[in-house]
Amino acid sequence: MMFLETQILVVDRLKQEFEFKERGDKLRLGKCPSCSKKEAWTSLESPWVIHCPRKNHCGETTYIRDLYPDLFEKWEKRFTPTAENPTKTVDAYLVEGRGLPIDQLKGLYSQEYHKDYDTQIGSVTLRFAITDEDGNHGWWQRILDEQGVLPKTMFKKGWKSQGHAWLSPNTNYIESKEIWITEGIFDTIALWLSNVTSFSCLSAGFGYYPFIFLNHIKEKCAERNLPLPKLVWAFDNDKAGHDGIFKNIEKAIEDGFECEAALPPSTGRKADWNDLYKQDRLKLSDLETYKYYGSLLIAEKPVDKAILIYKRSGSKTFPFDFNNQVYWFKLDNDKYDEYMKDIDFEDDNEDWLEEEKEKAQADRREKALQAAANVTKIVNCKPTALYYQYSDETDEAWYYFNIDFPRNQQSVKNTFTGSQLAAASEFKKRLLAVAPGVVYTGNGTQLDRLLERWIEDIKRVQLINYVGYHNELKTYVLGELAYHNGKQFKINNEDYFELPKNINLKSRAPFTLDINANQTEYQNAWTTDLIEAYGVKGLIALTTFFGSLYAQQIRKTHKSFPFVEIVGEPGTGKSTLLKFLWKLFGRINYEGLDPAKSSKAGLLRTFRQVSNLPIVLIESDREGDKGVKQFDWDALKTLYDGGSLGAQGIKNGGNETYEPPFMGTLIMSQNAEILSTEAVMGRIVQTKFYKDQLTKSSLFASRRLEKYETEHVSQFILQCLNKEKAVLESYNLSLQKYDAFLHQEQFNIQSSRVVHNHAQLMALFDAMCQHVIQVPAHVQKQVHEELLNMAQNRDKILKSDSVIVQNFWNVVEEMEDSIPKVAHHESVVNHSAKPDLFAINFAHLYKIAADYRYALPEVNEIQNALRHSLHYRFIEANKAIQSKITSTTKRCWIFEKPNSQRD
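Structure tokens predicted for DUF927 domain-containing protein:
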């Protein structure tokens, strides 16, 4: 059954996204989510599963819950109770969330409401009464919409849940031959609906042995002279479930019960009994299989487990694990035959009944198996292949293993390449490297058999080599959290993200982001401190970080994202500001990278580390640092529109290269202004910090910013990603408005690139204020005014020389006018004989300046600036010419004179 509200949404999405068409009571001719062929079909009335009929090529079944998980949440919002159906919310959860028939469950549950008064967040709950002890009744409830804040489940406050059990209705436990005991109530309901006698002990945790009800069973069986039922401990197939089974069996045996275990299958996605019920996998034959899995778990010795496997599979050689170690089983046929050849029950025991003969033969076969079973340990750990991780971009792949150790040592996880798994010697080396104290003593044949078990139908996980946004999958991967279409996902126990549409994604993160997902710990007072400490300039820097989260989406629509330069003399608080802004993203004690002190390879790797996150370059032009080469900003201009960072070879023996685009944003923090070509300068939005802007109150505010811990402010990035769709919609609407605003003639901004850059920041600032943080209206107005002034100043800079260049030429012109010229010479420092050129030999220039006490900038600094000289247009550096002053060959920098200076 599927509720009408959900059915309409599912059908609409399948038609739009996969092009399904209604044909009678079916949806047909849709694209298969796995192979994309237009042959898939599903039910129109209850489209729970999409089937692909291409058995030989695909044949996949896709569950709607996996495809559209967002349609199976927010129960309270989607299913509002009515007077006719006051339990509609929990009914929908039971049917659509748990796959249970509510007509058989009526009266077992109620719809309640829980509110946390600290956070003022509440939710509808599904409550089950627990009445196994007279006079001490409690309840357990499942909170349907916990919103990442409320606990998923809870017991009645003040009621001790240990020892209690939830019992299924109309069940004769006393006369039952066996009783299955589960962790959860939903699991017990699933077994009960499958005609299995069961009850829930409420948890697999220590102290939840259900002594209250088991003591009741013992008393009633004693009163009626009945044998005790066998207990089948059927917990989840995970470590907590296994530990619970062992502890409870030990206690139950002490109490006189015969015990077995049952486990859900461990292959593929983790499943509990409720999941198996939804898949119709709780038939009698299935239950026997699950008891077999349980028997393997509780086998006392390696040989016992091996014989169980042999009896079921019939294979005479195979690997198996026991107590987190791997063994090899081999049946010695000669020993077995020798042990069995003397059986002659018919001749010696003519009076035996047939049943007695069969029992004797079975006992003899069991002893023969024990004698012939040869079990050898081949590795003193338990490797488990979790998945195959691959990178499409670099054509690399690894198998990701979990390695468990005996004696409860901490597990380790690491990768193995194909070559390291292909040969026993290489596997042994790699295992020694990643697992302390572990030795593989098996041979190649045994390793091949292990590989068959490890990697058959292994899960595939896509690997990315950066932190941030995956453009094709529309997903942010940030440390242990991921965001897909505004929904948060947490990393699973196997270190990857399970996303909708069967997408498995993992980041081989070059650095970590420590983001606190608990919104109740968020301290948003930092916005006030930021404004008080840095004013509008701090908000502009914040906008730059904020905008970086949407860089690829913005570049896709508007082709570019501006470079941002934060410039100011030392002591103006740039470092404090940047470190705090990184805290908002969960990156601790980090400011940026000095490009002038990094190798080219190191710098390229840094630029490839992020997507939709900023790259901050700091202090690349320090004055007087002779050991540091000036950084060439012109090399980065292609990053403006997400251009290539340069190619690297792919290690596959061919000529293929990997040439990734720049996926982040660029922020430069400088003490001195960047001087580069017009192409680079036009890409930069510059905000300047001055010491005269500092006050006592701003100093105290900046100190308060330093004291914020990452766990109290890193929720900012999550709020931004949660509002991704709304932010981008607001940005796109505002950009058109501000682009038209800055293009007005009264502002005299001629560069369209300058207009576009500053309009982008204006639009991003508005979107941030509208959806993420609160900024007073008058401060917002000041930010807009500041961005307008920045745009006008940047446009003027593009039309004229920088201050350092202007001052240099002023000094040179003054020297030409004031210093007496040598006889027969027309110039003091211009070595060119051509009337329209000005040639400078810097050694000669600085000697003359020193002789006549003229102050000039440091040579390396001014030479870099003069390469972008406009008034005296730069032509060439270090050209050998015949000097008009010395009549000898001099190496000079050549400039074209302005018209006013020509003879």
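The CA atoms of residues 93 and 313 lie 40 Å apart.
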